[in-house]
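Field reference: sequence -> structure
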Amino acid sequence: MQKLLVSWGHELVVISPQGARTVRAPSEKGLRLAIDPASHLRRQLGDFVPDAMHIATEGPLGVAARSLAMKRGWRYTTSFHTVFPEYLRMRMGIPAGWTWRYMRWFHKHSQRVLVPTHAMRTLLASHGLCNMQVWARGVDARAFAPDDGMALAGLPRPIHLSVGRLAREKNLDAFLSLDLPGSKVVVGSGPDEARLRRRHPDAVFLGMVPHDRLAPLYSAADVFVFPSLTDTFGLVMLEAMACGTPVAALPGEAPQAVVEEGVTGCLDADLARACHAALSLDRVTVRERTLGRTWETIALALLGALTPLRAAQAQALPQEAGAGIQCGLPEERCDGSRVVR
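Structure field:
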């Protein structure tokens, strides 16, 4: 992503908890939060004054970036990636109303709140957020492409694959409890991993796999299964589809925004029926229908959504054609902000 922006003539400064003193987030061992985010932000930013600032998450470092922008009179944009009010209610018993109040405060002065789907915009509007703009997600169609499909050789077919964080809100029991022919393969780690391994010993758990090694696994699967009802988008579905693998999912908001019913996947309240139906879809068509959602398209949409730092700036940010970009820190993995110039 950073190489892409540079190739377009932009300069990107990514500020994350890396290099800061951090503490593990409650209930999420893989998420680190900066202990002194304001000092870390000042050290990382120095005297650099960007043309635009985008705050990607609502954690401590995001709050520090918001505070700095408000103090200096900078305009900025924000993203809403994760429905934290529901996640915190499910995991820690925190009333959702408390977290929604915080979300309204955090995004209140954002020039644009970038959300992944129209359904998410409607949901956030019902909770009092405003100034929202849909910014969908794209996939690197060069990195995620069909291959020889041998990465999972030896497993009984059909192979049903799930990729993502292993947490209760991902609803993986709905997939792993199904009576399906062939194999069930799970890629990822998370707080619910030990329980899932104990409860579903018939499934193949591969643990965490580096992102750049996922494409062969997607290609080797016959169906990609997405049981979550809480995700705001689900980029893994696009990645699987780019490899030619059809999706089977419950009819939640994220799958409805990504999957073309009966063409790139099947949505059904009966997940087993969706898995069976997806097996009959044409993999070449699945791949072709995904190519319109590349990083090139999404990058231009992002650049168009960014707001000049000061209202007095006469010209918007330059936009140039080129490869693709995915901006926003990895969802649910780090807390941070971004500045672009």
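Note: The two ends are 14 Å apart (CA to CA).
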